[in-house]
Write a structure and sequence with these properties.
Radius of gyration: 25 Å
Number of helices: 22
Helix content: 55-70%
Largest sheet: 4 strands, mixed
Oligomer: single chain
Structural class: mainly alpha
Number of domains: 3
Strand content: under 5%
Distance between the termini: 63 Å
């Protein structure tokens, strides 16, 4: 099988995955909060021409370093300030990641292993979806994977070049997201040392890695400190310490949250990874494999303890999960018991949920009274046309799982893997076409459309009672219209019309301001306006 795998197959697969990642990349608007938040930061960099400092609402922001925004700015110069421009960097990252995964896998156990790992990673739900997104994590994870691989190679080859490459990767990860870029690799190496001591990273040369990473980070940080003092360092640490110790609003989840996210988000790779790890409790045959096992444990431990729990926080675990699933199949798993019943049961449950969803949305009156959150209730009052064709992703998934299970019963592993990988991709593509736009209609489309209608008009546009980047990004507000003082907008002597967006359930927040008039309600949102005293409208501000 190893001999039958040609390089042309790998190249064709990468091209195919590139086409699939591009499919539906602009099918929906950028989602609040992360996608829109990051895209707005980049838009402001482009509008001001100041690429050295991160800003939001044209004010300094100390939550993120700038590397991803530089990449996104280059993309927006190419594609425009839009969804494609914001998401294109992660499309590139997807292809880089798959090529790197294949390369690492080939050096680990051969071309077949690298190919299987690459395909498993590309077709798992969450990794596949993230390469269509505009968030930082795909690049952050890519740099960390490179760092851990380089350090693993450095331990076995004892060459300084690998330590320098690891430092370069960690430095880029630090520039992308911050201190976790150093914490995760060091914690991974420390944990793997507890059971794998044959060839480990040399501490003296590890200093070289940290030094190189520091140099890379300093290329931006020293000019930032020179220009603006130590404010970034102080505010950055204060923000992240708060983030790790106390859950941010709407992101308080139970301790097992990431376990569920990873299991279903990487299904069925997660199922086969569990089977592999049950049979190989502590991997001692290869240093990189031991580090991947330690990486999985470190990510789960850190983000179980972190107070704020968001889906993509644990996304670094996608690499070890699919890695161990690939090892399961590489060994053809004949010495392991197949989790066939679990595979078909969980697959049918996922497919059944997708099939049943349109029926549920067409019969909301049967269950909407059970919802306690008023904003969600208001959102569901919106008239969104669901039909039974929207069950197609679920039907495809159920049929695909059934065919894959048939091959599994016959121990025909190649057809089995090909079937469930293809099933995942088809179901995701159909989901993006049929279902995602309707989910967006409930959650944010009315607000986004309202903001887009304000683009190019001389007015103030603000949200009240919640945070959103949509008014800034989709109305393309300029620095001259910046007005952070909400009290002035509500009751001051404004010089331009001011429009407000708030949740319908929060209407009481504007009840005390008689000069603010209601425009309309749409879904969970309410829209208001306040005009300056001397303003004489020539035409309606909002249709």
């Amino acid at each position: 099988m190893e001999k039958g795998l040609k390089n042309s197959w790998v190249v064709c697969s990468l091209i195919g995955f590139g086409v699939i990642f591009a499919w539906g990349i602009s099918a929906v608007h950028l989602f609040d909060l992360d996608e829109l938040y990051f895209a707005e930061i980049t838009r402001e960099m482009i509008r001001t021409g100041c690429y050295g400092q991160v800003t939001f609402n044209f004010e300094p922001l100390y939550e993120k370093p700038p590397l991803f925004f530089w990449l996104q700015a280059a993309s927006m110069h190419l594609w425009g300030v839009n969804e494609i421009g914001a998401r294109f960097p992660n499309w590139i990252c997807g292809l880089l990641t798959l090529a790197t995964v294949y390369y690492i896998g080939r050096h680990y156990k051969g071309r077949w292993f690298g190919f299987v790992w690459m395909c498993l990673y590309a077709t798992a739900f969450l990794p596949h979806f993230y390469f269509k997104s505009a968030i930082i994590d795909p690049f952050f994870n890519y740099f960390l994977l490179l760092a851990i691989y380089c350090l693993s190679r450095a331990a076995t080859l004892s060459k300084r070049g690998w330590y320098s490459c690891a430092g370069l990767s960690i430095g880029c990860a630090l520039l992308a997201k911050g201190p976790m870029a150093l914490m995760i690799p060091l914690a991974t190496l420390s944990l793997s040392y507890t059971w794998f001591k044959e060839s480990v990273v040399q501490l003296k040369l590890l200093v070289l890695t940290i030094w190189v990473a520091t140099v890379v980070l300093s290329c931006w940080l020293i000019p930032e400190i020179w220009a603006h003092g130590w404010t970034f360092i102080k505010e950055f640490w204060a923000y992240h310490l708060l983030l790790y110790h106390k859950p941010v609003a709407t992101h308080a989840q139970p301790w097992y949250y990431h376990y569920l996210v990873l299991f279903f988000g990487c299904f069925p790779s997660s199922l086969f990874a569990i089977c592999f790890l049950k049979a190989n409790r502590w991997l001692q045959n290869h240093y990189f494999a031991a580090n991947m096992q330690a990486l999985l444990a470190v990510v789960l431990l850190i983000f179980t303890l972190v107070g704020t729990k968001i889906v993509h926080y644990s996304s670094m675990a996608y690499f070890p999960i699919t890695f161990f699933a690939a090892d399961f199949f590489y060994q053809q798993a004949r010495k392991y018991s197949y989790p066939g019943y679990w595979f078909v049961a969980i697959g049918l449950a996922i497919g059944g949920t997708l099939v049943f969803m349109p029926w549920m949305m067409r019969h909301k009156h049967l269950w909407v009274t059970l919802i306690k959150n008023q904003a969600i209730k208001d959102a569901l009052t919106l008239s969104v046309l669901w039909n039974y064709w929207d069950s197609l992703p679920g039907l495809v998934y159920i049929i695909g799982i059934g065919i894959a299970y048939y091959f599994l019963l016959q121990l025909r592993l190649v057809p089995f893997m090909g079937t469930f990988m293809g099933t995942n991709m088809c179901a995701l593509a159909l989901f993006l076409i049929r279902v995602a736009p309707k989910i967006e209609a409930y959650t944010q489309k009315e607000m986004v459309d309202f903001c887009k209608a304000c683009k190019g008009k001389s007015l103030y546009l603000r949200t009240v009672g919640f945070k959103s980047a949509a008014p800034l990004f989709y109305a393309d507000q300029s620095k001259t219209l910046q007005q952070p003082d909400i009290v002035w907008l509500l009751e001051g002597a404004i010089d331009k019309p001011c429009l407000f967006i708030l949740y319908k359930s929060d209407k009481a927040l504007l009840a005390a301001y008689p000069s603010i008039k209601h425009i309309k309600d749409a879904g969970c949102f309410s829209f208001y306006k306040r005009l300056p005293k001397s303003f004489v409208p020539i035409q309606p501000i909002v249709d």
